Amino acid sequence: QVQLVESGGGLVQPGGSLRLSCAASGSIFSHYAMAWYRQAPGKQRELVAFITSRESTNYADSVKGRFTISRDNAKHTVYLQMNSLKPEDTAVYYCNAGTLIQLRGTYVPTNYWGLGTQVTVSS
């Protein structure tokens, strides 16, 4: 099975930056699409970005142009570089291993989730 561990969260001021990391166990890592989700109190968990095994990427409109997802298959790690952070980005961020429905461009999560890392954007 795949085990995911997120890190890199913290408290930053609006306009600041953070880089989240998600370390994954298992040699099958390179075959999965990977994604970052986030969940704020009282809100649904939402898909922020995903990256396929061929390293194509997709972003939620709310973060497009500000966030960048990347992966290092040799290190079994996926990253989320977050720039120009806003208070509305405050949430617990989770990584997930999943698959992609090519015809729809739809990310399908598996039950492989990390425990999350808190990101707080506040002045």
Summed up:
The protein is mainly β and 123 residues long. The protein is built from no helices and 11 strands.
Query: In percent terms, what proportion of residues is strand?
Result: over 45%
> What's the shape?
globular
Total strand count, please?
11
Radius of gyration: 14 Å
Question: Helix proportion of residues, in percent?
Answer: under 10%
What does this structure look like?
- This protein has 123 residues and is mostly beta strands.
- It is built from no helices and 11 strands.
- A hairpin with a 5-residue loop joins strand 5 (46-51) and strand 6 (57-59).
- The chain is globular.
Spell out the key features of this protein.
123 residues; seven-stranded mixed sheet; mainly beta; four-stranded antiparallel sheet; 54% strand
Question: What's the topology here?
Answer:
Elements: E1 4-7, E2 10-12, E3 18-24, E4 33-39, E5 46-51, E6 57-59, E7 67-72, E8 77-82, E9 91-101, E10 106-113, E11 117-121
Parallel strand pairs: 2-11
Antiparallel strand pairs: 1-3, 3-8, 4-5, 4-9, 5-6, 7-8, 9-10, 9-11
